[in-house]
Specification:
Elements lengths: L5 E6 L5 H10 L3 E3 L6 E5 L3 E6 L4 H7 L4 E5 H10 L6 E5 L5 E8 L14 E4 L2 H11 L4 E4 L7 H4 L4 E6 L3 H5 L2 E10 L1 E5 L6 H22 L1 E8 L3 H7 L7 E4 L6 E8 L5 H9 L3 E7 L6
Bound molecules: phosphoribosyl ATP and zinc ion.
Length: 294
């Protein structure tokens, strides 16, 4: 392995893997897959990807085995609480793989707020996050550490409650569990090693984070085009979500009508389009933006 190349640790397979790859590809990184399955080289940039289990990512970044890493903030938080003196930093919040870490109890169990958890057994894969949450509340429970299949713990009689990742809620429902408390909200983070990084690698980091920011911005941004009577311009502009000063162009041969073009930094919902039409806008188009750079 060439140590002068920037190394980014990502999840090999699982819920973070596809979105991590998507982000890298959208940022123009050309991934050259190979048989080893542990390292992928990036063409034309001094970057290698290290493909590992998500749980190993904070440790690898902390030790400098990888310079950067993409991991769920739930996994990073658990690691940070376990390693309080660690200086791994969060370079970016990436906004994907969003989920919650929640406490749930069997549907038939009586639940009257967190005091119900006093003396209870709670199964989780996140003993540090849960332990801190309970300590801050002044509640004493027994934490049963499990790796996988946490949701079956109450049925098996191992625990009275669970604390696990919830996304759609389908797993809780299928196991007869009701969500009671959300103790942590998670999304993917880009981590940076606390170890020394060469100036060349720092330049590469700055280049790709600028691109990541561009990818994020363009995902959240739309280009909107519409026609409207000039007298409705003020109302139309007010309705455009997160818009910068719009471009207004007179429409050839249509007196009093203008075309309005604008970049919107928020989602444009159907409701917004209906409101625009109600104030007189027609031919409303909402277009995705492929790339952006400030
Ligand atoms: O093999 P490896 O160790 O790399 O992967 P893993 O199995 O430990 O993790 P993986 O791929 O399941 O999740 C990786 C990360 O994705 C997590 O650390 C979270 O940050 C994030 N994430 C987002 C999720 C979910 N959504 C999710 N739904 N992680 C897990 N789940 C599981 C949850 O544990 C539960 O079993 O999905 C179930 C709940 O989902 P719903 O939709 O039924 O509520
Ligand atoms: Zn894992």
């Amino acid at each position: 392995m060439d140590k002068s190349r920037l190394r980014i640790a990502i999840q090999k397979s699982g819920r973070l893997a596809d979105d991590s790859m998507d982000l890298l590809k959208s940022a123009g990184l050309k991934i050259q897959k190979n048989k080893s399955g542990l390292f992928y080289r990036i063409k034309d940039l001094p970057i290698d990807l290290l493909l590992v289990r998500d749980d190993d990512i904070p440790g690898f970044v902390s030790e400098g085995i990888a310079d950067l890493g993409i991991v769920g903030s739930n996994v990073f938080k658990e690691f940070s609480l376990q390693n309080e003196s660690d200086d791994t930093s969060i370079l970016m919040r990436l906004g994907f793989s969003r989920c919650k870490l929640s406490i749930a109890t069997p549907n038939e169990a009586k639940y009257e707020g967190t005091k119900t958890l006093e003396g209870a057994k709670i199964a989780t894969s996140y003993p540090e996050i849960l332990g801190k949450y309970l300590k801050d509340l002044g509640v004493t429970s027994t934490i049963v550490e499990m790796h996988g299949a946490v949701e079956v713990a109450p049925t098996l009689g191992i625990a009275d409650a669970i604390c696990d990742i919830v996304s759609s809620g389908a797993t809780l429902e299928a196991n007869g569990l009701t969500q009671q408390e959300t103790i942590f909200k998670s999304e993917a983070f880009l981590l940076k090693t606390p170890q020394e990084i060469s100036p060349e690698k720092l330049k590469t980091i700055s280049r790709i984070t600028t691109r990541f920011e561009g990818v994020q911005a363009s995902r959240e941004t739309k280009y909107i085009m519409l026609n409207a009577p000039r007298e409705a311009l003020e109302k139309v502009t007010e309705l455009l979500p997160g818009a910068e000063a719009p471009t207004v162009i007179p429409l050839e041969g249509q007196d009093g009508m203008v075309a309005v073009h604008s970049v919107c930094r928020e989602s444009v919902f159907w409701e917004t389009m209906e409101k625009l039409r109600n104030v007189g806008a027609t031919s409303i188009l909402v277009l995705p933006i492929e790339k952006m750079m400030a």
